[in-house]
Amino acid sequence: MKKYFLKNFAIGAFILFIIIFFYRPLETEDIWWHLNVGRWILDQRALPHVDIFPFTSRADPWILTQWLGSVIFYLVQKAAGYAGLQGLRSAIFVSALGVFFHYARRKIPFAWLLLLMFVMAFGLGTRCLLRPFIFNLICVQIFLIILLCYQDHGNHRKLYWLPALMILWGNLHVGSFIYGLGLIGVFLFSEIIRYTAIKPSQPAAIKKIKELSFILALSMGALCINPYGLTGALFPIKALLVPGFIDFYGMGHMTSEMQPPTEIFSMQGAWFFLLLIPSGWMLSIDRKENFTEAKSTGLPVDLAAVLARGFMPRASGDPKGRPLTQLILFLIALLGFLYARRGADFFVIIAAYVIAQGAQRLSWGKRWHNWPGHAVGERFIYVFIIFLSVCNVIHAANQKVFVNNQLVRKIFLQEEPDSPRAAVRFLLQQGIAGRVFNSYEYGGYIGWLSYPRLKPFVDGRQANQCDSKIYLRILADPDKFWPAAERQYQFDIVLFNANEAFHYKFMDYLAARAEWQLVFVEGPVVVFVKRGKFVLSQTAADFEENLKTTKISLEKIPPPILEKKSTWEANIKNFFNPSVEYNAQWETGAILYTLGYKDAGIKMVSESVKVSGEKKAIRVLSLMLRDYQK
Prior knowledge:
By secondary structure, the chain is mostly helical. The chain has helices at 2-21, 31-44, 67-104, 110-125, 136-153, 161-172, 175-197, 202-222, 230-241, 270-296, 303-310, 324-339, 344-361, 364-370, 374-397, 421-429, 443-450, 465-476, 478-489, 504-511, 538-549, 568-576, 584-594, 598-612, 615-628; strands spanning 400-403, 406-409, 434-438, 454-456, 493-497, 516-522, 525-530, 582-583. The longest helix is centred in the N-terminal third of the chain and has 38 residues, at 67-104.
């Protein structure tokens, strides 16, 4: 009775944890232009073939192959608001874990399976963004399950579900091309290796080669079933392989998800090694056993034989299996993730399935239940999962931000606290309209709230490659490229994230230009307008001058006291009651200081320290004062 109570309690605690863990504020990224495009599609009852939100009167050719994802997001937003979108994202991530649970529940002992899914949640959490790629989390697994089942049992009938699913997937996200065709290709390749390396397996291998080749051809044809036909089907190929088609790699140095995951060497990356080690061990066990078997057969032990017999796909009815396919998938997923963070979700899925397959081959469930101490072990694991789940729920519930002069729990926010919403509202309230030179990540948000009154220069759609290249050149060398771009595009407004390293040069340049007037700063968001271009309210008109005339007396600012090095006790206390994650007041002060309004910046940060006493604010104030006194 106690065992079942612990088990059910652990399940409930884990489900509560993952629901809350994936229920996050909407990020200031691509979701906003997806909403805007979804609204346009439903309003016009058509799909775009040219840029539907052009910056100038010129409308460049543009298609949206993931149109269905945009429509789904907009319909959810229209029906349930931003909270509905947050719930949708949480539901998709929880469902992705549910699909894996359904597949692995008879392969891995239940307690260990819950523990594995707990680790998976943290891995998937690194990609907890609201974009159409989240549908890949489910589609990839369905493909994997069908292909693994086919590899195990040779029943080709289920393979015909793949082209059918590809039709839906192809209209949701380009991942259908990258992952869908890629998965079929890997399974096909492993059968080709089997055919060339092991003669006794050739009849079965040639049969599978024919069947997989046919399914691959059907799936490629299924990609053409979209509103754009062959043009839409070829779009992912051009995006990945044709230089400059959408400048897929051009923004890489500015995009966090395109950078290597250096955080894996911190506590935040512990999930990576908790998946890497057991999945690698499962593959190495198979390799060792099957290499020994290859030697015992008397066959020549050359490289091809070792590869083929050491990592061969499972023959029908063979309980041992030959995980060549899994090795290839694992290496692709691992290298993809180490190259760029955006590969985290695929690595998590592949590593988990490698572990599940390895557990089945090693009869982990049977061995675990035959172990005399398994009952005690299960209770310990359930208690551990309950403890981890409850701790993380408390941590998530107590995360706080300081916005609008009040402390707010992050779980109740619908948008990230550093979004440009206040800046866009300010411009609209001031009656300011025109062409906006904006941060890349803000373009979709500006368009969603205010197009065509405010026309963003760039956004995540990359609809105009020429504009995107000019944007990058301006950030790299504003002295050389900004004057010509300003004349050509007639920018009236600049709305930027001043807290990004690759924006510093442009921000310093613009702050020094007399013809541009600073009218708004909140957190990292800054707004400049052309001086004399708009009729501003008195407050907005005097904003910059008030900053310049602000003076401080260092004697009236108490020196910040930095705490000693944190202890384990302090770290544990901070985990359950986290310090304020974002404080708009001192973030604003820090930005003002970097823009040259040093006195105003120090004053604002010191006031924040008085109110909140945050460690981050104290450190920032300490650095400011040290620099100010030089």
